[in-house]
Amino acid sequence: MRTKPEMMGQLRPAFSELNISEGFEFDTEIVTNEIKEDCKSLLLSNEQLTTLMKDMDGAIRNGLGKDTNPSSIVKCYVTYVQDLPNGTERGKFLALDLGGTNFRVLLIELGENNYFHMDSEIFKVPAHIQTGKGTELFDHIAKCLAEFIKKHNLDSKKALPLGFTFSFPLRQVGLTKGYLNSWTKGFNCSGVVDEDVVRLLKEAIKRRKDVEIDVCGILNDTTGTIMSCAWKNPNTKIGVIVGTGCNACYVEKVENAELFDGDKTKPHVIVNTEWGAFGDDGKLDAVRTKYDREIDEDSLNPGRQRFEKMISGMYMGEIVRLAIVDLANQNKLFEGRLSEQMKTKGAFGTSFVSDIEGDKANYKETLKVLSEMGINDPSLVDCANVRYICECVSRRSAHLVSAGLAALLNKMDEKSVTIGVDGSVYRFHPYFHKLMVEKTKQLTKSDIKFDLMLSEDGSGRGAALVAAVAVRDELPSMTNGLSAK
Description:
The protein is α/β, with parallel strands linked by helices. Helices cover 37% and strands 18% of the residues. Strands 1-11-10-9-12-13 form a six-stranded mixed beta sheet, sandwiched between helices. β2 and β3 (102-111) form a beta hairpin.
């Protein structure tokens, strides 16, 4: 690596204005002014974020309204989950987590003194079933459920409560009723779109005649995140995923959810915002860059999920790659030299962003990543510039999530809220948590206190807890409700 002697020993924390200097080991003074200027479009001011918050708030209110929902970009689907865990749940519960080519079956046991035990097994959905008949898919799932029950010596004649995480676009009309809008992730099973997937699962189980399972609820992974965290902390009222995708759900007052037609004697219901679509109506245009527009135009769903495309792990690495290619083509990086790999769409994974920002000294990880991308012998300045690009992209991602969370916190106006968070970007990026906490605090009303809690397996554990709460609430002696405790 070519170095400039006068630059050695000058390394100081980057982004020091965030007051989170620990971890940021490198000096932005090494970054060239040209790179800083070109990256300005990736840096969002509090004024810009406040404008986005107002637009997000309006979109959420439209999504909640009976008359405004049909045209709303943010759909705010009612989940029909109205009760959180309160620590009194007891017994054994099943969970089914279906969201891709593999699915999981889980057995969770809850007992006294926060006793928790979990067993799980992963099953594969063969390729021919992914594109075959819907009945074949659900028959396969029922078969795997039966094998799991037998393997764990569960009473096959006793109706076992099950929570069903279904991570495909779903229109819910009840806690145990949800219609598939469209298949994604390579699935294209016939006879399932516009059908109630809970009914299809129940019918497949019934056809077997060898197990009894009571499907107590269907949910997505954000709802599972709230449930998983609320089991330990009943103050959890928001769940957010920052991983391959990005979405959030929150606890809403029943009277505000105008499309809710469930039990209105209970004061609250969890609403799945589906905020990834925010900005599909142009509300993000003022802050979208040429890189965002290119990613959107080249995606499988152009014009859709624009908020998610500026945030999530599916796109973050590609934004960095596009910026690197653009700046190298302008002779502002690598003396204008680019490898074929760096020119290849999707080659720069989001994990590379975390690796580069996780560097502790001497740009060791940055050099390793650039070598993997076919860039050899970069200068120290090149390494600093690449790191700065990564910092700008991930910082923007965290700040956009923060704006969404602040909009929810301000709308709810609860004085203390725990936010359950899950997803690979949040888990594995070295500074994402700090960036989110700092910016959310700046954008939220001063009298609102919040904390972020890492979710433990929301899509699995959370699904079982939906079943556990449903069983608990059949007992009149148990307290329930989503009200603050």
